[in-house]
What does this fold into?
Amino acid sequence: FDVGTGGYDVFVATEAGGLAIPGHFAFGSDGNLYVTSQFEGDRTQDAVKRYSGATGAYLGDFVTSGSGGLSQAAGIGFGPDSHLYVVTNGTTGGRVVNRYNGQTGAFIDIFVPAGSGGIAHPSQLLFHTDGHLYVGDHVNPKVYRYSATTGAFEDVLTASLGSSASVISVSGMAF
It folds into this structure.
């Protein structure tokens, strides 16, 4: 979008490179755009796709389906170590935060395991310059804080907002 006029151009074409249900995106230190793609009903094709940050041209699947348990990828971001972090359903029985090599897309490890600190449905993640990784819970309106270097749970940043609050989900975060 043009911030001055509100006009827009299509940056990544519909279904470019097999993009199905685009979810979350992040720009890497290489200047390219990384987008989560989910295939409803066919999880064998979920991926993190890479597009040119200059032209929007498809450059290939950066993380392929099943790599490290990648399935139903949600939040995505690059950490201070330049690696890619992705919230995914994983193969451990719950949603996790996986770490992938920021240059090759190869699976490194499960950085935040399922249920760490009590998180039930992680959906968003955001690294901050304070040395922490913040992960929002999609179902329970809470934000969990983890070490950006080890993935260890530290605390819950916000208490539950309760049933009288108008916020029912943490769907996005910014500092």
In short: The mean pLDDT is 88.
